[in-house]
Amino acid sequence: MAYLFSTSLLTGLYLLLTGDLSPINLIYGALLSALITLLLRPSRITPDFRRLPGAIWGILRYIVLLIYDLVLAGIQITRIVLDPKLPIQPGIAKIPAECESELAVALSIHALTLTPGELVVNIDDQKMLQVHFLDTSNSVDKVKRAHRLRENLLRDIFI
User: Which of 50, 44, 157, 49 is nearest to 111 (CA)?
Assistant: First the structure.
């Protein structure tokens, strides 16, 4: 049943995006959707719709926080690069990944890596992220707080 639902949903989305309701396009869309559904194997977990408003609110807050972090880090990196003294203190710090959901941890790592001046270089067995910073003098504590906030938001979304 999950395969049929996913295939139908993807076929409908394909037809909406192409805007072509010809029989050959319908067949092509259905075959493509069936192939994608077989490759991705839809989840059989029934969604809890009571959590949907909280999850949507969490997603919106996460996106706003991510955009804010990206803009702020971009401004900080610009200041560093334009300064003739190049005031940086590069280094690696460890930050714990406290979320149980692998998807939430991956999204949080992605957000860290997207942010200019920060790069996750390793995750060890104890779920400690090793993050390279362009300037460790003031950014480590800020990133730890932002990472913890992002993980809390992602936990609200996925759990």
Answer: 157
